[in-house]
Amino acid sequence: MKKISLFLMLCLILACGSNEKPEGYVNFDAPDGVDEYKPTTYYFIRHAEKDVNVEENPQLTFKGIKRANYWGEFFKDKELNSFYTTKFTRNYQTLIPVLHHYKGEPTVYEPKADSLFSKEFWQNTYGKNVVVVGHNNTTPAFVNEILRQEKYDIIEDGVNGNLYRVDIDEKGFIQDTLLNYEKFELPEEILKELEYLNEASEVDSQKLQEVS
Q1: Contact call for residues 111 and 134 (beta carbons, < 8 A)
Q2: Is the domain covering 50-183 a CATH 1.25.40.10 domain?
Q3: What is the pTM of this model?
Q4: Tens of pLDDT along 2-36?
């Protein structure tokens, strides 16, 4: 009987000492110290299509550039006010059209950090609409950390259109949604401009090869 009482007491102490939130809720308090949270929305995407023929820090392909511009169009009415990317060129290039609409400045995060959804990240993005450009492994991992469950797998090669949306409401309750925009269409004027720039770039590259 005494052993059972000690066990129950230990369980009670551990339960009282834990600050972990219930499942389904964000595992941090509101930074401003109030009970009601400010609604916070995260959009997580993988960088657009990269040049697979380049091993070290490749840039986007023309298809990737088109996709980046699609994201620019997609996010222009989402009232974003915080922008995160890793240090790699392909991620910056994916984010540039989004930044263009908002005249925003990107924040670089470290994808190899012990915790992606850290307390610092939460405090810096709390109450905002945030886009995070990551990789095939870090993007779902980031979402999983917020959810505190291994819900999403690594993104397969060749899939660049996943959009993970995470909404945190006034109670701290989390709602997550996975959408896919693998097929996309750009406004004709943007597509024509990109094709013109791509052709001009190819001509310049050809001239450089002829000179060398």
Answers
A1: yes
A2: no
A3: 0.86
A4: 454 555 444 444 444 457 899 999 999 999 888 89
Q: Six-digit token pair at 37?
A: 């949270």
Residue 50's nearest CA partner among 109, 104, 93, 6 is 93
Taking the mean position of all CA atoms in its chain, how far away is CA 56? 22
Domain ranges of the chain: 50-183
Chain centroid to CA 53: 25
Structure tokens at 188: 């004709």
CA distance 54 to 169: 42
What pLDDT is stored for residue 35 in this prediction?
87
Per-residue pLDDT, averaged over 69-78, amounts to 97
Would you say the C-alpha torsion 99, 132, 65, 210 has a positive or negative sign? positive
Considering all CA atoms of the chain, what is the largest pairwise distance in Å, rounded to the nearest integer?
91
Q: What values do phi and psi take at 111, rounded to 5?
A: -70, -15
